[in-house]
Design a protein that fits this description.
Elements (H helix, E strand, L loop, with lengths): L6 E5 L4 H12 L3 E6 L10 E5 L5 H15 L4 E4 L14 H29 L2 E6 L14 H21 L4 E8 L12 H6 L9 H13 L7 E4 L11
Parallel strand pairs: 1-2, 1-4, 2-3, 4-5, 5-6, 6-7
Helix pairs in contact: 1-6, 2-3, 3-4
Length: 239
């Protein structure tokens, strides 16, 4: 195996979990290619930034061209970009549906296909995707069928890809979070959202980051859907 410095590509990297992942990979001495629609240039010469919409195949081409031109390899792809909109199923619009498919599924397809092409040639690599525990444990208090429809597809694709590429040295995993404390959730909702987890608290960004970093270093783990959800997926609890 090459002793070159490792390289991670992170989508949805401008804020929240994505921005924290950029710092976590840098703390492990990875070079990073960070992409999102609103990403700004980085002062750190070991962080390359690419502005673009993950749903556009041109973005994946730009991201991986930058990774190879600048850093000469790609070891890890974190599919972190995603959207979440809780509303009753019959209230979703055609635009809501199209946006979910574009960001959560089409973005995953283009980024992952391009990454695995490169990893196959290297004979090593890791893809990890952020999904949601609502796929396995829906809640009446958080109606989110489009999240389950799209992120459930990603869980299934994770297992399928893990088996398809296991002998090629490419691992594929997912992190399935509960409700994480990010700016997307208003402060006044935190108490209610915390109560939805058996552990009685919302997840922290660091909880998800630590799970991603564990999977990245766990060389014998592939096809895993790692739940980071305060016990949600284990079963029902009394609120």
């Amino acid at each position: 195996m090459s002793t070159s410095q490792r390289v991670a590509v992170i989508t949805g990297a401008s804020q929240g979990i994505g921005a924290a992942l950029v710092q976590a990979f840098r703390s492990r001495n990875y070079k990073v290619v960070a992409t999102s629609r609103s990403i700004k240039p980085a002062a750190d010469s070991d962080i390359a930034t690419v502005q673009g919409d993950v749903a556009d195949p041109k973005t994946a081409n730009l991201v991986f061209k930058e990774a190879l031109d600048r850093f000469d390899r790609i070891d890890t792809l974190v599919n972190n970009a995603g959207m979440f909109l809780a509303k009753p199923f019959t209230a979703y619009s055609n635009d809501d549906y199209a946006a979910y498919i574009a960001t959560n599924v089409t973005g995953f397809f283009h980024m992952t296909q391009r990454a695995i092409e490169i990893m196959n040639k290297q004979g090593s690599g890791h893809v990890v995707t952020v999904t949601t525990s609502l796929v396995d444990q829906p809640m009446t208090s958080v109606p989110a069928v489009l999240a389950s429809l799209t992120k459930g597809a990603l869980n299934a694709a994770t297992k399928s890809l893990a088996i398809e590429y296991a002998k090629n040295g490419v691992r594929v995993n997912a992190v399935s979070p509960g409700i994480i404390k990010t700016p997307m959730h208003p402060l006044e909702a935190h108490q209610f959202l915390a109560s939805l987890h058996p552990m009685g608290r919302m997840g922290e960004v660091s909880d998800v980051v630590e799970a991603v970093m564990y999977l990245d270093s766990a060389g014998f783990v592939t096809g895993e859907i790692l739940h980071v959800d305060g016990g949600q997926v284990a079963g029902h609890h009394t609120i």
